[in-house]
Design goal:
Blueprint lengths: L3 H5 L2 E9 L2 E8 L7 E10 L2 H7 L26 E9 L11 E4 L2 E2 L11 H4 L10 E2 L12 E5 L3 E3 L12 H16 L4 E2 L4 E2 L2 E5 L3 H13 L5 E6 L2 H10 L2 E4 L5 H9 L4 E6 L10 H4 E9 L13 H5 L3 E4 L14 H11 L9 E5 L5 H6 L9 E5 L14
């Protein structure tokens, strides 16, 4: 393990969100890993919609003991939870990885991460993302990966193949969220399912951000869904990718969504809609598109712009609402996060392509101001990632960073 005195004397650069829309580059101590922790030199980190929401003041998941949000001005945050990197040092009790390994990270700290002997009811059932004691790196106040080093429990680390591209590794967490959401759909016990008596044969994905594009690929290439799969967005770049991945697309900028779906299905309604926009206005069209007792997966976050009264038609038609959050799924027999393992396997097997989703790359912290204020609004933007240069400067024998 790292020598504590030497480690504590060293600092790293980090991008700190000191207030709403206010980044600052600061020097912070490099964390010293405990016996059960791994120190990771960050290789690459993705910019998530959650990061954007926190930056712009639309969300705050850092809470006090009463459950009230703590202002960024009182507790600045280091964002970044979609990341992978190289092991720079390990604690004395770490056995599943070694210095130099390329690893992905489950950013959610659950009972297993916290070494709790008695698991909460959610962790016990495999729903680790709902852990009663859970915390999230880069989201709930714990330091994230817009830094050079992060210390995480060994339980949350998954060793990747040595040749795995570090940039692609930033999409493991988003893909894990998609896998978890699809698992939630199957476990919901709704009228229409992928393998039950009443099968899903017509689906619509609203929103073609990274998650929407991953949903298409996962449904087609992993779950083997061979029914009608529609996808709606207004950006041509995303629509083109959706077509390549196997969806029939609707450009809502110049096409009426309801008319297009009705025309292409011969007037038949949909069994399932995956809502991945986070826009409240999408609920206006759903009643005209959905069969009675159809299923809506709420995946996008936000949904502002509409009064809750918009859900009245859902009650009348007994629409099933399924929600999903994060890449939950428990831990496998090897101790690794099971959903993350499934995501890595799909990438290694080539069933999921993520490189086309990376539209913007950054290599300096100072560049991220533009990413958060301007680039994410651009028509060609899909996914931005930050990659650290000069990885070899800090990976060594485990005794110093």
């Amino acid at each position: 393990m790292m020598q504590a005195r030497q480690q504590q004397a060293q600092v790293q650069q980090a991008l700190v969100l000191e207030d709403i829309q206010k980044f600052a580059i600061r020097e912070l101590p490099i964390p010293t890993p405990t016996d059960r922790e791994v120190l990771i030199q960050v290789g690459a980190v993705g910019i998530c919609g959650t990061d954007l929401h926190i930056f712009h003041g639309l969300a705050n998941y850092c809470r006090d003991s009463r459950g009230l949000p703590i202002p960024l001005s009182s507790m600045p945050q280091v964002l970044g939870h979609e990341f992978c990197g190289w092991v720079a040092a390990v604690g004395n009790s770490v056995r599943r990885c070694k210095v130099g390994d390329l690893v992905a990270v489950d950013q959610f700290l659950s009972c297993a991460s916290l070494n709790r002997l008695a698991l909460c009811e959610y962790c016990e059932s495999g729903d680790t993302h709902q852990c009663e004691f859970g915390q999230e790196l880069g989201i709930t106040g714990l330091p994230g990966a817009f830094s050079q080093f992060v210390a995480v429990p060994e339980t949350n680390v998954l060793v990747l193949p040595p040749q795995f591209d570090v940039a692609r590794g930033t999409l493991i967490e988003p893909l894990g969220c998609v896998i978890h959401a699809c698992n939630r759909l199957e476990k919901a016990g709704t009228r229409y399912s992928f393998n039950g008596r009443h099968r899903v044969r017509r689906m619509l994905i609203l929103g073609l951000g990274p998650s929407g594009l991953l949903f298409i690929q996962y449904l087609r290439n992993v779950m083997g869904f061979d029914g009608d799969l529609f996808a709606a967005d207004w950006q041509e770049t995303k629509l083109d990718l959706a077509t390549q991945f196997g969806a029939s697309t609707v450009n809502v900028r110049n096409q009426d969504l309801i008319s297009e779906i009705q025309s292409r299905t011969g007037g038949k309604k949909l069994h399932c809609v995956i809502e991945a926009t986070g826009s409240g206005t999408v609920f206006d069209d759903m009643p005209a598109l959905l069969r009675r007792q159809a299923t809506v997966l709420l995946y996008g976050a936000g949904h502002s712009g509409r009064d809750i009264g918009c859900l009245t038609p859902f009650q009348a038609a007994e629409i099933h609402l399924v929600t999903s959050g994060g890449a939950s799924g428990g831990f496998g027999s090897d101790g690794n996060p099971s959903t993350y393992r499934a995501a890595v396997q799909a990438l290694v097997d080539g069933r999921i392509e993520v490189s086309p989703l990376i539209s913007h790359r950054y290599q300096q912290f100072v560049e991220l101001e533009q990413a958060f204020t301007q680039d994410f609004r651009r028509a060609e933007y899909i996914k931005g990632i930050f990659t650290h240069p000069n990885r070899q400067d800090h990976v060594g024998d485990g005794t110093s960073p």
